[in-house]
Amino acid sequence: MASPVETRWRLLNWPWWSRLAVTSSFFAAVNWMIFAPASTFKDVHQFLAIQDKIAHGGIFLTLSSLVRWSLPGGTAARAGVDGWLRFGVPAALVLYACSTEVLQPLVGGMGRTFEWLDMASNIAGLCAGWLLFGTAIAGTVNGQAANYGGSRR
Known about the structure:
Elements: H1 4-12, H2 16-35, H3 51-69, H4 75-79, H5 84-107, H6 116-142
């Protein structure tokens, strides 16, 4: 039976094409949710006043975690992102989060509006996902999993 560390190591090290497929699929779903007309979500009941902001943060937390997971290289490379990846990928994600909020009223049609708090939730989710995934994966690389003999690509 595989230890929890070995299981986590195997989950983190899927082949590059499968990581890219999962991330691309989620990215497509995010684009649909962001740019769909407001009438698509009219039947969604609001339990909390900030439910929309929590959803924005959670969606972008997941997106940034998946993007970091799908970066090229092995687990060690994704833990200590170097070079242009360190600033370029997060900057591109922040630009995407801001531009989606700006474009929503233009592309999404009736009922979609620009909201500063949505943009702040998007960026907070991106930052949290990027940092949390980096912290989680760094523990795997520096812990027992670094000695596990599985594929690192």
